Amino acid sequence: MIMSQFAAALAAIHFNQDGLVPAIAQQFDSGEVLMMAWMNAEAVRETLESGRVCYWSRSRQGLWRKGETSGQQQRLKELLIDCDGDTLLVKVDQDGVACHTGRRTCFYTAARGQDLIEVEAVKIDPKELYK
Amino acid sequence: MIMSQFAAALAAIHFNQDGLVPAIAQQFDSGEVLMMAWMNAEAVRETLESGRVCYWSRSRQGLWRKGETSGQQQRLKELLIDCDGDTLLVKVDQDGVACHTGRRTCFYTAARGQDLIEVEAVKIDPKELYK
Question: Keywords for this entry (chains A, B) (predicted)?
Fold first, then answer.
């Protein structure tokens, strides 16, 4: 039964009052932290079942199959649950770039002293991602 | 002025309705994702000022200077803000173990098929951490 196939994982996750859990995406081989987004139970199930990472878009209030518009998909390598069950770490193989700005990761702004410094360059023009 | 020293960073962070932002801690050299916890503005400021990572404990409703009980401190290497300002990545140098279970990271439970598998061993007996 599909419903019970991932029952152990789903039972171990403590979704918040909105039914969501934060999911950190990390490139499995390089270790880059790519992004953080949210999943509901359906997104977790679809991710485990399909092997392609699916989040819950809080702005669109719908499933967000990463890369369905931009083509920059994330293939699941491993889904890990933290010690108190309220955060996920998804190790992925990221096609191209994770960030909608066309950068490899979303974490390209560093707080250094009094300044904010961009530490990562745009790799793909966002116009190319969302044309 | 201390208040304005980190004004640019604080202004770039979008704290949620509880005044908190999720912060992912990553070992700066190995790339291990150690844990995820929450910061309020005061925790961000203290972290940037002191160079030791400080979170906000939602259970204790107070500042949580990582390692103050266990001794397993996190020294800040870099604080990064994501593209929409609602998640932080703190690159740290973690003393010993990050997890209260005595494991290096909190993400030691993998969802593999129908099973949950422990993929990381205890390195320090928790009794030694909290004696």
Answer: Amino-acid biosynthesis, Cytoplasm, Histidine biosynthesis, Hydrolase, Magnesium, Metal-binding, Zinc
